[in-house]
Design goal:
- With about 210 residues, this protein is α/β, with parallel strands linked by helices.
- It has a single domain (about 15-35, about 45-210), classed as 3-Layer(aba) Sandwich (Rossmann fold), CATH 3.40.50.150.
- The protein is built from 7 helices and 7 strands; from the N terminus they run H-H-E-H-E-H-E-H-H-E-H-E-E-E.
- Helix 1 (about 15-35) packs antiparallel against helix 3 and helix 2 (about 45-60) packs parallel to helix 3 (about 75-85).
- The termini are far apart.
- It binds S-adenosylmethionine.
- S-adenosylmethionine binds near residues 45, 77, 93, 95 and 137.
- S-adenosylmethionine (SAM) binds near residues 72, 98, 136 and 161.
Length: about 210
């Protein structure tokens, strides 16, 4: 638990981000090897790319506040990167072993993040799920926000990694639950990180750009 990070070639300690990403890579690789073909839907996003997008959001003062929520947090790495940038970060994940893995990685890298085991979609969202071309989403009766004692509309920034065909579903969920002014970041394998903002109570979010 308390191991010191290795030094780089010049004898310098790696930054906290480098240390986190190095440790995450090795743990995720091992996890994927052990769970090859189980079809449970965990694939890590490109953390360097997502971190660069988060850094730009901070530099450009795009977020109206500090509350960050990762939908389907997997190993929780994006939530941890957000916490290192000063966000109060929360992750929701439906697979309990991944929640434990994320909590362990956060403790090891001393990232202050809270994870909830549960779903960010409830049975009330079945109408949205039914419209998806293809979806891995699983819903539960109650939402995981209750564990945080926060309402979804309190979050300033959401992050998600939609599977191909789920993009509109993420947008629709964001429009349903976020408050006006909140940001939605989504990772897309081919194009990078899309940043959008909710600008009105209904209607699609406004595209800010690809980061
Ligand atoms: C494509 S992976 C992305 C993981 C992580 N966000 C990242 O960027 O590395 C999607 C994750 O969402 C989780 N998931 C799927 N449906 C969910 C739901 N309804 N509620 C919470 N997590 C869910 C999966 O178990 C998986 O870990």
């Amino acid at each position: 638990m308390d191991q010191m990070p290795d030094t780089d070639l010049d004898g310098n300690a790696p930054s906290r981000v480098t240390h986190l990403l190095r440790e995450a890579d090795s743990r995720i690789w091992e996890h994927l090897e052990q769970h090859r073909g189980d079809g449970l839907g965990f694939i890590p996003s490109d953390f360097q790319l997502v971190n660069a997008a988060l850094e730009r959001i901070v530099e450009e003062h795009l977020a109206r506040g500090h509350l960050f929520c990762e939908w389907g947090s997997g190993f929780g790495v994006v939530s941890m990167l957000a916490s290192l940038l000063g966000f109060d970060a929360y992750g929701i994940e439906i697979q309990s072993d991944l929640v434990l893995a994320a909590e362990d990685l956060a403790a090891y890298t001393r990232c202050d993040v809270r994870f909830a085991h549960g779903s960010f979609v409830t049975s009330c969202d079945e109408d949205l799920i039914a419209t998806a071309k293809r979806s891995w989403w699983r819903s539960t009766e109650s939402s995981a926000y209750e564990e945080f004692d926060l309402e979804p509309e309190e979050f300033d920034l959401f992050f998600g990694y939609p599977w191909p065909g789920e993009e509109d579903l993420f947008d629709a969920l964001f429009v349903r639950y976020a408050s006006v002014g909140a940001l939605l970041l989504t990772f897309h394998e081919t194009f990078g990180v899309l940043v959008q903002r909710k600008t009105c109570t209904s209607g699609p979010p406004a595209v800010i750009g690809w980061y």
